[in-house]
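User: quick one, fold this
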Amino acid sequence: MAVRRPELVAGVLGLTAAIILIVVWAVDPPLADRLTRENETVEWLQVALFALGAALALGAAWKLRGMGASPVLEILVAAMLMSLIIGEVDLDRVVTGHKIIHTLFFVDARVPLGWRVVAGLVLVVPPIALAFYAFVRRVELIAATWRAVRTPWGRTFVAGVFLFGVTEVFERPLGHVVGLPKYMAEESLELISAIWMAVGAFARLRALRNGAMKP
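Assistant:
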């Protein structure tokens, strides 16, 4: 069964998450502080939701290929969500022990030159390949984007992206909300945005599988 009202589902889930965090803060402020610190529970929930959204977007891309339609938008959505995962938890540091996505890594003589070259290729080649792919498929991408923003799933996903972007822009002031732990406002808003994006991606794939939506 398709998700007929993804905006409503996303709104309810986002509001529920916000209420839970507010209740935790009201009952046990130190616990709320621990949960919303960087690289702690709430941030890892975001990562899980971004990973889910990326998997759903790739599933939609696979479905579209089977239907003979272009999956360019879904592939770019999956890539964007994967990049958010890397940025949120410093995945490069978690995996390798080094902050690779940083200029200092590439000029650090303590790191073997071969590793720096490989890291550079890994960081540079995929984005260039994606940009080239998007440019070649730009007509299909524009058409798919225009169709998406006119659908409930698309509006839900875009709302999540917009909320995440606004949160990033106002990250510093959000860290100084009187009475709240330093990261609580920022991480709570990012969690809500991740929920919205995941719901939008889920609604897209379910609609495609149920034939309720044209490519």
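User: anything notable?
Assistant: The mean pLDDT is 85.
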